[in-house]
Amino acid sequence: MTIHYGQERVSFNLVRLKKGGRKYEIVVDPDKAIEYKEGKQVELEEILKSPHVFYDAHKGELAAIEEMKKDLGVGSEEEAIRKILEEGEVQLTEEYRERLRKQIYEQVVEIIHRNAIDARTKLPIPPERIKLAMEEAKARIELFKDPKKQAEEIVKKLKTILPIKLSIARLELRIPAQYAGKLYGEVKRRAEIKTEQWNNDGSLTMIVEIPGGLKGEFIDELEHETHGGVEVKILEE
Fold first, then answer.
1. CATH 3.40.50.1970 is the classification of domain 168-236
2. CB–CB of 61/42 below 8 Å?
3. Which bin fits 227, alpha (ψ -120 to 50), beta or left (φ > 0)?
4. Homologous superfamily of domain range 10-91
5. Which of 21, 58, 106, 213 is exposed most, by the fewest CB atoms within 10 A?
6. Residues in contact with 16: Cβ distance below 8 Å, sequence separation at least 6, in sequence order
7. Bridge partners, residue 151, by sequence
8. Phi and psi for 98 in degrees, rounded to 5?
9. Weakest-pLDDT range from 50-64, 99-113, 174-188, 210-224
10. Those residues with Cβ within 8 angstroms of residue 104's Cβ, 6 or more apart along the chain or in another chain
11. Looking at residue 5, what is its pLDDT?
């Protein structure tokens, strides 16, 4: 679902719907409202900061139920609230926008750190170095764009500043029988499993893909957990 966001300055986080020549507003918790619009199960009590519909929330002008029924085609104020949530435009405060911007910025940095390496040394690039390069490249964070897509676009900009490249390592693992059951879930959590085979001796052979920047840490952890018993073959990086 596409979620639309208003750009005007507001002092409440609102969802606004214009119908019948009138404006209807509800005051919301922005995180919960966005979750609801994305189809997640969220109770109205969690979303609403006020249980009422307004013509103008800033002025405290309550909407008349008869006009809501006529304009929105609803039978009650609760139905009106749900219709506004489903069809309305989210209006965010500058404070919330700034908090969201910082959150997405850190997500983008982490994605680049996890998925990119120094093209010369094949080592991960520290987050602080990525941040400095982003500042130098004047990379902009967009509030409502997928952080993964933003990270890919920013990496292209950073190539003029850093010897950086996105990297996926493809590994073949053979985990001894006594550790296979315990480590299966951890491997699945950390890497994408492409193939798996349980061998006659109870050991587990897997081909997995993992961000290149995390390859060394991932192998070190497996070696630690298996006391050096894991066999790792690097197929591609």
1. no
2. no
3. left
4. Ribosome maturation protein SBDS, N-terminal domain (3.30.1250.10)
5. 21
6. 6, 23, 24, 25, 84, 88, 89, 91
7. none
8. -65, -40
9. 210-224
10. 141, 142, 143, 147, 150
11. 52
